[in-house]
Amino acid sequence: MARAQFSAETSGGGAFVRQPNRFAGRVTADSTSPPGGGPDEQDRWPLEAGRYRLIWCRACPWAHRAMIVRGLLGLDDAISLGTVDPIRDERGWAFALDPDGFDPVLGVSFLSEAYLATDPDYTGRVTVPALVDTLTGRVVTNDYPQLTLDLSTQWRSLHAPGAPDLYPVALRPEMDALMAEIHRDVNNGVYRCGFATSQEAYDEAFRALFARLDALSERLAGQRYLLGDAITEADVRLFTTLVRFDAAYHGHFKCNRSKLTEMPVLWAYARDLFQTPGFGETADFDHIKRHYYGTHREINPTGIVPLGPDESGWTTPHGRG
User: Fold this and answer.
1) Could you tell me the pTM of the whole model?
2) Is 191 an annotated catalytic residue?
3) Per UniProt, where does glutathione bind (predicted)?
């Protein structure tokens, strides 16, 4: 069997099994903690503008969705932003983009320092996004699916006027089921292809990925967005995988039945979102390619970063208005 990129997250059958999210605290409107306090008995932190810092990487799709939701809801001033370098070595995510290599608010060089300040015994992989409490330097959460839903629901009092409802109550049952399918087969499915260490595990993930993309194409052929005529979190979650598809997943992760640009409905849909304020300007193809091709040395031992594909198509008319 081939060597695994993340051996602790690879099953005996060669399938990639993503580690659980270690920190699952929540910032909520109904926390019983006072301002400046820590989590209450239910691990709920108090809602306070300016207290928490979102740590993201421009290359990471999980972190990218948090960045997009934060912007769409107008929470930029309420939640500060720290950006790690796209190149991750054995020490993990580094604040190498900041002057002197330190996050100016948290005062740390690596996100792992915040993880260990929260759990000194933590030995798992350090992940983004992470919401960090600037008062204590502790990680509140790295539970990326719940984090963005909470931004829509728990942070509502701090939303900008006219902010979209990305998680409408009436649509939640359908949305939750759809997002679970997208996560399993697409968002995490590309990783299950790329990090598989057996042919059988890869084949299974590949078939599930493209079967789901075909089903989503059929769904989107008759409506502008996944849940109708308005953008929801489901669209955000699908977009952050699609925008990386041709640049990274098609080649690097062997998701090569079709390029995104060869799937007409999904390509037009992705361009529609890319050209929507809050989406395209947060995508960084240079960081995306340097991260995937430069850090997964079991998959790409040379570390060579491809020059393509041509990115100009993202701004061409999409015809879905």
Assistant:
1) 0.95
2) yes
3) 93, 125-128
